[in-house]
From TrEMBL:
This is WG repeat-containing protein. The lineage of its organism: Bacteria, Pseudomonadati, Spirochaetota, Spirochaetia, Spirochaetales. It comes from Spirochaeta lutea. InterPro entries: WG_beta_rep. Pfam families: WG_beta_rep.
Length: 390
């Protein structure tokens, strides 16, 4: 009966909504300690039967069975395309799935690339550090030189370039490259420096900006390498006594903000000893939290926060002026506290719904997983599953 319902969903157009913007279009969730997938309207797409589940990419998902070693590639209907064993199977990127083979030690593990039939494309193994394919290339270590990294094309040929200490996966056409000595820049798919390696640290590009660091400064640069946002802890006004500031955003949010945390605690910032400063993507100031609080990323006009007002811990959402527009219902927590290897479960609004969880889920089944909308309505996953099983 359940399989028939899944096929009916596909017939009605579920397959057509698997887009490149997968993270924004779908909600992953826990039920009975297993992971499943809902669409943007909270319609069940993939039943919760997996230990891990990726977001859809190029029309496919990676799923880990409860045995902890068997991976399945699923199509948009939730049907198994192929099955393989290993430490990790990534969903396809440029049509190829990266599989890390588990040989019992991370020093022995190797990477192979599978096509959509589950066949080994290159018929050879690569170093574990080999990245996924994107823009027609992947970063990989030279044979017998695990610290000499270059780019490889879709034919398995190494691109002629100066070897680097590390290469990260491509994002928005550029990849972070680390030279020997740890200076960092950004590569194009030809293995050339698109942005010179003059930084100490760098994150991937997202929505046209990337975070980089140099000395005590944090910057966000555009794809030309031009500085858009300059952040220096000593130059921030409205400081708390004895506080230290650090940039908490690693990338610009969908609503175009980055944010920093200022705390009087040098070890562990808490909602009662911290402030949050938001900056627009052009570097102009947004707002400083009006009370002690740790805020999150803005999506759909609001951001989550955990704060302290008159000694009382509160959780909710504020708008772009810092005004509280919604409190989290009593007894619930944000799902940010739960993470997996495919990117965590952040409590941000997506198509009008945000994932939350009952604070008391001591049974370990996570049956308290629910979704909240701006009107304050709560839909439990267990109720969705009950309707699906009828």
């Amino acid at each position: 009966m359940k399989n028939l319902l899944v096929l009916l969903l596909v017939f009605l157009g579920v397959q057509s909504i698997f887009t490149q913007d997968a993270e924004r279009s779908y909600h992953r969730f826990f039920y009975n300690n297993r992971v499943g997938l809902l669409d943007q309207n909270l319609t069940l797409i993939i039943e919760p039967r997996y230990a891990e589940l990726s977001y859809p990419r190029e029309g496919y998902l990676s799923a880990l069975l409860p045995d902890g070693k068997t991976w399945q590639l699923l199509d948009s209907r939730g049907q198994v395309v192929f099955q393989v064993q290993g430490e990790r199977l990534d969903p396809p990127s440029d049509g190829l799935c990266r599989l890390i083979r588990d040989y019992g030690s991370m020093f022995d593990d190797k990477v192979v690339f599978l096509d959509l039939n589950g066949q080994d494309v290159f018929q050879r193994e690569f170093d574990r550090s080999t990245t996924e394919f994107s823009q027609g290339v992947a970063g990989t270590a030279k044979p017998f030189f695990p610290e000499h990294h270059v780019l490889m094309n879709r034919s398995g040929e190494l691109i002629k370039m100066n070897a680097l200490f590390h290469i990260q996966p491509f994002s928005e056409g550029l990849a972070v490259g680390v030279k020997y000595g740890n200076s960092v820049g950004f590569l194009n798919p030809a293995g050339q420096w698109a942005i010179e390696p003059v930084w100490d640290e760098a994150e991937d590009f997202h929505l046209g900006l990337a975070q980089v660091k140099q000395d005590t400064f944090t910057y966000f640069i555009d794809t030309r390498g031009e500085v858009v946002i300059r952040f220096h802890p000593k130059l921030i006004r409205d400081r708390l006594p004895g506080e230290r500031w650090f940039m908490n955003s690693q990338r610009v949010s969908g609503d175009g903000y980055v944010y920093a945390i200022g705390s009087t605690d040098r070890v562990a910032p808490q909602p009662w000893n911290s402030r949050t400063l938001y900056l627009h993507r052009d570097g102009s100031r947004g707002f400083l939290s009006p009370f002690s609080a740790i805020g999150g990323a803005f999506e759909e006009g609001v951001a989550s926060f955990q704060g302290s007002v008159n000694g009382e811990l509160i959780l909710g959402f504020w708008d772009t002026s810092g005004q509280i527009v919604q409190y989290l219902p009593e007894g619930f927590i944000f799902t940010n506290e739960i993470y997996d290897t495919f990117g965590g479960y952040p409590s941000v609004y997506k198509h009008g719904w945000v994932s939350i969880m009952e604070k008391d889920y001591s049974t370990g089944t996570r049956d308290g997983w629910a979704f909240l909308n701006r009107a304050g309505e709560i839909i439990y996953v267990r109720d969705i599953m009950e309707q699906f099983s009828q």
